[in-house]
Design a protein that fits this description.
Elements: E1 7-13, E2 30-31, E3 34-35, H1 36-46, E4 52-57, H2 62-71, E5 78-83, H3 88-97, E6 105-110, H4 118-131, E7 133-139, E8 146-147, E9 153-155, E10 163-172, H5 173-186, H6 193-198, E11 205-208, H7 219-244
Parallel strand pairs: 1-4, 1-6, 4-5, 7-11
Antiparallel strand pairs: 2-3, 6-10, 7-10, 8-9
Length: 246
């Protein structure tokens, strides 16, 4: 399935981090032993099907990213760090413009989603090869309300039809490029890459992700992230102890 496929990942790490209330970009906040962005890049570095990683960073953080993320953790698949834009959409587009000429499958991922699993990445690649466009996501657990401007509930959609979109979102190169071309032409700004492809009338498949794949945005998210890492460490130590005592 992966023969003759050149797979590139664009990691968007140029956000303003306003909701985090931190003096530094949330991508560089440490979780346990390393920055959030390093945790994120590591997952794609480990995926054997990923050929290149492009990081999109704020212009004044590019050198810091090179030194403290790429060089420090010896990531070999990061080919470029490019300047981000005012919006995520502009940032990802800058990443698209920097893709290797050989690229035919493109993944976009949030730098602040460090808990994506390698399996999610592989499933996304498979989905893009098979369907042309896909996103990973999870069925919502809460009842969702559509609320009017005056805060009156307008309607309650059926929960079993609702999914929370995550990243990576994965596309054949020509599809995502056409989505961006059309969005620029129409001066349209979407909240994720899938929206731009949906506007073309192209079907986008949803593939099951994992509930741990949170986007770290607020201080409360950091608490959840630390809990996830702690739980994973406990599971690892218990498995190791069980193996050693056999």
């Amino acid at each position: 399935m992966y023969k003759n496929q050149y797979i590139s990942v664009i990691i968007a790490a140029a956000g303003m981090s306003n909701r985090m209330g931190s003096k530094i970009n949330k991508q560089f906040i440490y979780l346990n032993d390393k920055p959030i962005l390093a945790h994120t890049v590591e997952k794609f570095e480990k995926c054997k099907y990923v050929d290149e990683i492009i990081i999109v960073a704020k212009e004044d953080e590019i050198n810091y990213c090179k030194k403290e993320i790429i060089k420090r953790y010896k990531f070999r698949k990061v080919s470029k760090i490019v300047r981000g834009g005012r919006e995520r959409q502009e940032s990802v587009y800058n990443g698209i413009l920097a893709l290797d000429r050989k690229t035919n499958i493109v993944l976009s991922h949030d730098g602040a989603r460090p808990f994506v699993k390698v399996k999610n990445i592989i499933d996304s690649i498979k989905g893009a090869i098979k369907y042309g466009a896909c996103v990973i996501g999870t069925p919502v657990k809460d009842t969702i309300k559509i609320v009017a401007n005056n805060k009156d509930i307008d309607n309650t959609p059926k929960r079993d039809l609702l999914w929370a979109a995550q990243t990576p979102q994965c596309f054949k190169k020509e599809i995502i490029m056409e989505g961006y071309r059309k969005a620029i032409e129409d001066k349209f700004v979407g909240t994720d890459d899938s929206m731009l492809v949906e506007r073309l009338g192209i079907n986008v498949k949803v593939i099951m992700g994992n509930y741990e794949n949170i986007k770290i945005t607020t201080p409360e998210d950091l608490i959840i992230a630390e809990s996830i890492l702690k739980d994973r460490d406990t599971i690892y130590r218990n498995k190791r102890f069980a193996f050693q005592t056999r």
